[in-house]
Amino acid sequence: DGGITQSPKYLFRKEGQNVTLSCEQNLNHDAMYWYRQDPGQGLRLIYYSQIVNDFQKGDIAEGYSVSREKKESFPLTVTSAQKNPTAFYLCASSIPLGQSNTEAFFGQGTRLTVV
Amino acid sequence: KQEVTQIPAALSVPEGENLVLNCSFTDSAIYNLQWFRQDPGKGLTSLLLIQSSQREQTSGRLNASLDKSSGRSTLYIAASQPGDSATYLCAVKGGSYIPTFGRGTSLIVHP
Q: Which of B23, B59, B98 to mutate to test the interface with A (most CBs of A within 10 A)?
């Protein structure tokens, strides 16, 4: 089945640790996105990538980093510089830049908790 | 910068009612608008996608309309059921090709 897989489903981070959230898609989509969701809030964009080996900061990129070495993978690292990382993280993908009339598909999310 | 607002923030109705959820956006230069459903602790499931050139889309008991010039979309749910209980989010895709989301409407349908 085609889709987006996020892992792990739950993640616990100690103070000062870096952690990496995985996002893999087999939809052959060029564009991938990371969003953060807090209770009662909409989705806020962290990073996005329209093509392999290229990515751009979103609205709340501070304390996060990404890489896009393969088309199907877009991992997100939450660094120790992110002071309030407890949230629900969602990864999405869509067909690339220039093909505007396409829908976005989402993974099932990773819930990150600082302990 | 595009801003998306969803009204109401929460809604509780008895089973069988017809519902209207509202989504408004500030920049009418959009490519499409997408409605999603989110169950607690889960990801987003796409319900309907409306292209900028379309006025509405239908899927089963769901109907979404788009008035791009006024910056509004509505999601109509007919004959609501307890299984419809979830948060409904709308997202617009504009010139940046990046979906911008509202905060959602939390819906409870009670038997």
A: B98
Q: Would you give the distance in Å from CA A55 to the centre of its chain?
A: 12
pLDDT digits (tens, 9 = 90+) for A43-98: 999 999 999 999 999 999 999 999 999 999 999 999 988 889 999 999 999 986 56
Residue B51 with chain A: CB contacts under 8 Å:
101
Give the C-alpha separation, A80 to A67, whole Å. 17
Chain A interface, best mutation among B42, B44, B49, B90, by max A CB count within 10 A:
B44
Q: Does A45 reach chain B within 8 Å, measured CB to CB?
A: yes
Write down the residue that tokens 């989110």 correspond to: B38
Q: What share of chain A is helix, strand, coil (3-state, %, to 5)?
A: 0, 50, 50
B11-56: pLDDT as tens digits: 999 999 999 999 999 999 998 999 999 999 899 999 999 999 999 9
